[in-house]
Design goal:
Elements lengths: L4 H15 L4 E6 L2 E6 L2 E6 L4 E5 L2 H10 L15 E5 L5 H15 L2 H8 L3
Antiparallel strand pairs: 1-2, 2-3, 3-4, 4-5
Helix pairs in contact: 1-3
Length: about 120
């Protein structure tokens, strides 16, 4: 799926529903379409090519080394718990996995523990 920001946002919404993530709110982050949990953005559509996910800083390096064709970093994101990724390079299964991780990173502890107990 390429191109239109709305189509990318619809993909993100579909994958969060498929993942069974509770408490997801449609919103914006710096004027871009975003999904939030507990009032905190965990993923945003930056443009027609890039999604930005929330991620623990310790986990960023691993993804950057593991799949540099998908994940990248600009100076703007160095030292911050966010990681841009190329939307056309990531499949639904991996993106769903990253969305769950981003949601868990940002979700209130009580909500996150309820989700973890569903498995």
């Amino acid at each position: 799926m390429t191109g239109h920001v709305d189509a990318i946002f619809e993909r993100l919404k579909r994958l969060t529903v498929e993942a069974g993530l509770p408490g997801v709110e449609e919103s914006t982050s710096y004027g871009n379409p975003a999904l939030k949990v507990g009032g905190k953005s965990f993923v945003a559509v930056k443009n027609t090519e890039t999604i930005v996910i929330s991620i623990a800083i310790d986990d960023k390096e691993h993804l950057l080394e593991m799949a540099p064709e998908i994940y990248f970093q600009t100076d703007h994101y160095v030292g911050w718990p966010y990681l841009p990724l190329r939307v056309t390079m990531i499949g639904d299964e991996e993106l769903r996995f990253r969305l769950i991780g981003a949601w868990l990173f940002r979700a209130p502890k009580k909500l996150a523990s309820r989700f973890g107990n569903q498995a």
